[in-house]
Amino acid sequence: MSAAFPLLDRKACMVLALILTAASILGAQQSNGSPQFGGPQRDWMRRVRIAAWGLTPDNAKQIVQQAQASGVYGIEVDNDIPGRYESLLDPSEKLAAIHSAAAEAHRTGNKAFVYIAGLECISKNSDGPHTLFKDHPEWLQRKITGEPAMFTSGAAFWIGKGEEDIWISPYAADWRKIYMQRVRQIAATGIDGIYVDIPYWMTHFKGWEDSWASFDNSTVEAFRKETGLDARKDIKLGNADDPGFRKWVEFRLKTIDNFLADIRKNAIAANPNISVIPEIYPGIEDAAPRVGADVYRLYPLVDAIAHEYEFGEGEDHTAAGRSPFDWFMYQIGMRSFRAFAGDKPTWILNYSWDGAQHVQPRDAMLNLAMSELMAGANVWDAPGHVMSGSNDLPTRTEIYSWIAKHEDIFGAIRKPVGETGVYFSDATRNLYPNEFVNSYRGVLLLLLQNHIQFKIVTPRTLAQFDGKVLVLPSVKAVSQKEVLGLHRYASQGGKVVMTGAADKQLDLLHGATRFSDGREVKYLSRAEKNFIASDPASEPDLLKAIGTSTGVEVRASKNVVVHEARIGDRVYLFFANFDGLQAGAKATPAVQQDIELRMPRQFGAKLHWLPFMGSEILIDGQPTQKGPRFSVPTLDRGAVAWFTSKSQ
């Protein structure tokens, strides 16, 4: 350890020893062989209703009391140890506070997780004799020109005046050793989770977006050892057809994968039941390969992901500023995350309102919570763009109380229902993001607006998909394993539909139907320009090729999203109504009337209708030759429906 790191004093060592001893006893009692992902000890993660607080040495009891009073289950506490240079050097006071937060949460039957930075570290006094940069300039990420990833308060709102903000290379071996030691110490406090904030390559501050960093010595050497290439000379940055750049993209992604896997390995070594939850803002778009944190790849390596996922074409990306088109894109993003996650939970950290003059905070909060719940995600809404607090605490308390009352639905594992599959090609998105994402979104928008149920299929789940139709939206980069899987699907009677461009390896797919004219992208563009005028029936040939039925028919507005899923052995329908919303002007949707549902007889003759924030009602079905028909009186923001027999 460098001379810049002072020795802990006797009292601090005693605190750490007590925490570590307690945690080792707990681990010995609870551990049963090698720690596994999921399991009963992590069921709490699917039921969280999150809020955040800043943690000090003496406010743990107050935090937990406030959480209990407002219906919060899953308390985020923030006293970032590795992200502040001073506590990276001496974590003792913050470790004791984390231990107190965990103990207080557990005393009330709650859960708590603690925030830590990923590859960012702030020194509080940039003019002082010791800052991270002054002590360890070799740790910094750098542009290809050698410029260090060092910033001041003008770069981001969370950097205070006089502070030095540094982004560190994950290949800085001395730093990584210290960082993982701090992870083990945090885990040993008994806290339930470690929340790792934005573990990224520095490509998201102004002037760094297209840098494809980092080109520091340790990273360049690691790339050379893996590929034999010199990252500063042998790759053409941003050129998807360059083999060297393709290797650089994969190397950077794998580096972040390994970093988070290493964090989890170290955390569970100290506490087998702890969970690791990274916060990631890129979703399905081109930012993922640039920052190196791809949620598709990360889900198998961690216990959940907290998506700081926003969508909006204007300056206001909050719920108050979303148009119906934005809301549909938001649903597509969340459905994608749920497909990537499997049975693991998806947390959404998002923001409902930030001063919109013509929208009430309550309406924006209700829209945001409803949209996330109906897509299968957990809710975390904070004001502005910070993590703690609420735009309206009584409304948050009301929402969380309602979710808690129905956690048998919203905390359960859902299995999407659909005979149409839409393929998410991670490799294509990494190299040809605009082409792929627009085609992917265009296909899914048509399905959503026409109430055609679907499953999102990925390279991980291709072998298990047994639906009737599989859509490949401009899939231009596939592995040999994927090619074999697609041929196997087609040879077993599955229908493949390709839209847009396609990888040449897919030319010989048996019986494939091709729409190479980009009609799904053109439809997406029309809908973005004028969503009200968009006609989801305007592509009859494509809809005929990809449309399938699950036996459930829904007649509703094109502006209502319906997700069909199984929970256990029962089918549920999740309704989200975005009709009539206007970005920044109107956040109360137009009430829907005369929605009609038809379903097979075996589903039952009674409809259970649970309006969002309301109480369950029963609706009797009208018998028809095809099965019972149900007329739903009204749909406000959202609702859940399920079916039972008369005797149930």
- What Rg do the Cα atoms give? 25 Å
State the CATH class of the largest domain. Alpha Beta
How much β-strand is present in the residues? 15-25%
Question: Averaging pLDDT over every residue, what do you get?
Answer: 92
CATH topology of the largest domain: TIM Barrel
The tally of helices reads 19
Number of strands: 25
- The helix content, as a percent range, equals 25-40%
Q: What CATH architecture of the largest domain do you see?
A: Alpha-Beta Barrel
* Class from helix and strand fractions: alpha/beta
Distance between the termini: 67 Å
Sketch the major β-sheet.
Answer: 8 strands, parallel
The overall number of domains is 3
As residue ranges, the low-confidence spans are 1-15, 18-35
Annotated CATH homologous superfamily of the largest domain = Glycosidases
Query: How would the global form be characterised?
Result: globular
How do the strands of the widest beta sheet line up side by side?
Answer: 1-2-3-7-8-9-10-11
Keywords:
648 residues; alpha/beta; 8-stranded parallel beta sheet; 6-stranded antiparallel beta sheet; 19 helices
What does this structure look like?
With 648 residues, this protein is of the alpha/beta class. It folds into three domains: 10-308, Glycosidases (TIM Barrel, Alpha-Beta Barrel), CATH 3.20.20.80; 418-546, Rossmann fold (3-Layer(aba) Sandwich), CATH 3.40.50; 553-644, Immunoglobulin-like. 34% of the residues lie in helices and 19% in strands. The protein is built from 19 helices and 25 strands. An eight-stranded parallel sheet has the order 1-2-3-7-8-9-10-11. β15, α17 (480-491) and β16 (495-499) form a beta-alpha-beta unit. α1 runs parallel beside α4 (92-107). The relative contact order is 0.08. The model is unreliable at 1-15 and 18-35 (pLDDT under 50).
